[in-house]
Specification:
By secondary structure, the protein is α+β, with helices and mostly antiparallel strands. The protein has six helices and five strands. Strands 1, 2, 3, 4 and 5 form a five-stranded antiparallel beta sheet that branches.
Length: 212
């Protein structure tokens, strides 16, 4: 037999032997399956009935449907009456065209009341009032708007102010009053409470028709 042919035969038999060995190894190894789509073994099934202690639960993340409370009509706070040694409920009203000055001055009044241990019941803002300044032409009767002024008002409500301390407080406030800012002190009443809210004549007219 030709030696070249013998070498080719030996190499061919070696390759066939290697392929057979590789096939047997592939058959012996288990098939890799997807964790979701693969078949569950007997060891996996035994964990189905065991407790999970809430692991993986998501319903607690949802918002609970809480019942909203209906907002009733806002009622006026009780008005304290004046005594021999103290005033009742007083409204210190600050107004002006410059909102920055008004805000800074009302903050100064609030800090001053806290320094002298004066009870501050409320501190609120009133609706802004707009005033148009009209001018008439020199030759003619038509009027045109020259400027629009906005009046900003803030109120700080004091309770049970001492009669001996009141003149001192007013003297300090008047000495530190900035230019262009008006200061007034009034006794609190139901009319002063209603000024806080904007008038709605259309709604009031509809309500009167419903009540009839």
């Amino acid at each position: 037999m030709n030696p070249v042919f013998r070498k080719l035969q030996v190499s061919f038999t070696q390759q066939v032997f290697a392929l057979n060995k590789a096939l047997t190894l592939c058959r012996a190894t288990p098939s890799i399956q997807h964790p979701v789509y693969g078949t569950a073994s007997a060891n996996d099934r035994q964990f189905h009935n065991m407790p999970t202690h809430g692991i993986g639960s998501w319903r607690y993340l949802l918002r609970k449907n809480l019942q909203r409370k209906k907002k009733g009509k806002r009622q006026i706070n009780p008005i304290f009456e004046a005594t021999d040694t103290a005033y009742g409920t007083l409204n210190v009203q600050v107004s002006g065209y410059d909102m920055t000055l008004v805000e800074h001055y009302i903050q100064y009044i609030h800090k001053l009341c806290n320094h002298f241990d004066i009870k501050v019941a409320l501190c609120y803002a009133l609706p802004t009032k707009t005033t148009e300044v009209m001018l008439m032409q020199e030759q003619g009767t038509k009027m045109y708007t020259d400027a629009v002024l906005k009046t900003h008002e803030r109120v700080i409500q004091l309770r049970s102010l001492n009669t001996l301390l009141c003149p001192v407080i007013m003297d300090v406030l008047l000495k530190n009053q900035p230019e262009g800012v008006q200061l007034s002190v009034k006794e609190h009443s139901e009319a002063e409470y209603k000024v806080r809210f904007k008038a709605r004549p259309e709604l009031e007219e509809l309500m009167s028709r419903i009540n009839q």
